[in-house]
Amino acid sequence: MPFFWHNFNAKVSSFHFHMVEYSQIFLDHMQQVKRCSPHTLTAYKADIGCFEVFLEKRFALRSAHLADAGMVRTWFADLSSIGAAKSTINRKVSSLRSFYGFLEKQNIIEKNPMLRIRSVKKPGNLPASVDESNLMRLFEEDSFMDDDFAGLRDRLLLELLYATGIRLSELIQLREQDVDPQAMRLRVYGKGNKERILPLLQHIVDLYSRYTAQKERKFGPGRESWFFLTDKGRQLYPVFVYRKVRHYLGMVTTRTKRSPHVLRHSFATHMLDHGADLNAIKELLGHANLSATQIYTHNTIDKIKHVYKQAHPKA
Asked: 120, 142, 234, 271: which could form a disulfide with 276 (CB 3.0–4.6 Å)?
């Protein structure tokens, strides 16, 4: 038996743990067994922590397994009353659903308080994207980024986000061995630590060669193998990438939302605009099912209508 599970069984054998310890057991499980991304773990920890504070203040409750569905509903009602976004509430619903589902499977609780809790219905917001012409201007004009280490790094991370559609967490976790310039492909690890291989364009490979030369010149060979580094030679972190993306997109668009995920949305939308197969885009994005990818079809309707009128015998 692995040490983790031996340790886990020893912990859950007692029924008198504080809620924080229950949540830590859950987080350990999600990290070590489910291989959740750091971003997902941070969300779980924050959401469950907020609920813990609420239970103690409102109900003087210090143990997770004693919470019932009414307490959960009260928390979500409170969140709604103070104007929390529906997407935020739904994320917290998902976090508690995973948490209490785990406690139920481990026989820590007999009744799951999340069984009848439903996510909040929200309007079908379409994914934000940047106009193709604006992105082409950003990547084609040399004046936006310098040719030194920082400039080449910024250009390459922007190019990869748009050219491959990878997630922010996947970009940050890239290591040097994940890039194969000879085969022109990139290996990424997505949700659940699932591996997928993505093709690279020739100009990305050329940019990669220039960037790695500058990185070695600045920091020397044999450093830690993170592919992207900050100006101080450390692994990238989410806020760093957000700032870079927001800064550069601000040069070519007035859109308020300018995040790494907007480049992922732009990748999928522009691929569909140019006739890419939806299933292929699904694989490139690392979606578990096609329904998650179909949201990007919203702005291809005009093109589909045009093709239909041209191709159908009775059109």
From this structure: 271
200 CB neighbour count, 10 Å cutoff:
20
pLDDT tens, residue by residue, 102-121: 999 999 999 999 998 988 76
* pTM recorded for the entire structure: 0.60
69-81 vs 38-59: helix crossing angle, rounded to 10: 100
DSSP symbols for 10-24: HHHT-S---HHHHHH
Instruction: Express each pLDDT in 250-281 by its tens digit.
Output: 888 888 888 999 999 898 888 888 888 888 88
User: Could you list the active site residues?
Assistant: 167, 191, 261, 264, 287, 296
Domains of the chain by start residue, with CATH: 3-105 (1.10.150), 132-309 (1.10.443.10)
What is the spatial order of strands in the sheet that 179-180 belongs to?
179-180, 185-189, 195-199
Distance of alpha carbon 289 from alpha carbon 231, whole angstroms? 38
Could you tell me which residues are beta bridge partners of residue 187?
197
- Nearest Cα to 247, choosing from 163, 167, 157? 157
